[in-house]
Each structure stands twice: as structure tokens, then as C-alpha cells.
Specification:
Elements lengths: L28 E7 L7 E7 L8 E7 L2 E6 L8 E9 L8 E3 L3 E5 L6 E10 L13 E6 L6 E4 L7 E4 L14
Antiparallel strand pairs: 1-2, 3-4, 4-7, 5-6, 5-8, 8-9, 10-11
Length: 178
């Protein structure tokens, strides 16, 4: 840990409990040393991690009728970083958040031609203050694809064919490529 002094704060009698320092690096751990002048035994040391930066962009790697494959780049190199991903379909229901350790996710079992709001939160875990070590949410609105229409061969080696017409199409059992 670098021992550079970033800021020296002074407290006054009006509010001796609170102080703030601006311009700190998001997601960094800082050592805070408090000392009362003239009293050698009243020096205290604490460590605090600043909140991580929110994501600024999400890549849409694959969109099918029932699946979204997404990836992103997180700013910083946080030691205990994970990502919380939540998606809400336009009908107002909410899916349970999932926690992922890598900067990509696959959302499966979605409804075709449905708009979803996917929200991403960067989380620094591994500390007692883990709830406080969260970025602001970064929402992204994405729509799943229309089911495919066209000609699909049916059977094993048979010449039987089925033609699908209209907008309903057919949802195939496999979604995104992994």
C-alpha cells in the first residue's frame, strides 16, 4: 500500500464526527489515520474502500427469441469484484438478481419479442460493508428476437417438410451459442 498522504482533514467543534474527502479513486482501499494532537495514545487506524464505478456500456453479443447473451468491460481492477444482473420484462414482473464473477452473462428462458430492462451493478465483496460497496445501477433496454419463420426439415433422413407461415413462428429448443 502506498503511504502517500492524499488529504488532511480538520474537524471542528460544530460537527466533530463527519469529514469528507473528494477526488478519491473509485474502488480503491484507503488507510485512514485519526490522531488527536498532543495525545500519542489516541491514534486510530481504519481502512475504507470507495464505491466502484458503474458500468458505462454493455455489449449485446447474441439475441434470440428466448435468450440474451451480454458482456461488458468494468472500469478498474477490483480485487473482489462481482456483478449483479437483474432483468425486468415490460410486463412489470421482476426476475431474481443473479451474481456473476465474470463480465458476461447468458439470460435464458425469455419471451420472444419482449422488451427487457437489464440492470448491472458492480459489487466489491469480501468486506463487512459489502452492501455499501456497490456501484450505481446501469440499466440497458434490450428486446428479444422474433421467432424464426420459414422451412424446417422434420424427421431423420425423411423427405417430409413443414412450412411455417405468419408471425408466430416456432421457438427452437436451443438459444444462444455458448
Amino acid at each position: 500500500m502506498d503511504s502517500t498522504t492524499i488529504a488532511q482533514l480538520s474537524f471542528d467543534d460544530r460537527d466533530p464526527r463527519n469529514a469528507a474527502s473528494n477526488g478519491l479513486t473509485p474502488g480503491e482501499m484507503y488507510q485512514i489515520i485519526t490522531h488527536i494532537p498532543g495525545s500519542a495514545h489516541l491514534t486510530k487506524v481504519a481502512y475504507q474502500i470507495t464505491n466502484p464505478l458503474a458500468l458505462s456500456a454493455v455489449n449485446i453479443d447474441s439475441v434470440t427469441p428466448d435468450c440474451l447473451e451480454l458482456s461488458w468491460n468494468a472500469e478498474g481492477n477490483y480485487r473482489y469484484m462481482s456483478f449483479e444482473v437483474t432483468y425486468d420484462p415490460a410486463d412489470g414482473s421482476t426476475a431474481s438478481p443473479s451474481s456473476v464473477m465474470e463480465p458476461h452473462t447468458l439470460l435464458e428462458g425469455l419471451s420472444s419479442q419482449t422488451e427487457y430492462t437489464v440492470s448491472f451493478v458492480v459489487v466489491i465483496s469480501g468486506s463487512a460493508e459489502a452492501d455499501a460497496m456497490r456501484s450505481d445501477p446501469f440499466p440497458e433496454t434490450i428486446q428479444t428476437a422474433k421467432p424464426p419463420t420459414g422451412v424446417i426439415n422434420v424427421g431423420t433422413g425423411a423427405t417430409t417438410r413443414m412450412t411455417l407461415n405468419g408471425d408466430q413462428g416456432m421457438i427452437l429448443p436451443h438459444c444462444c451459442t455458448a
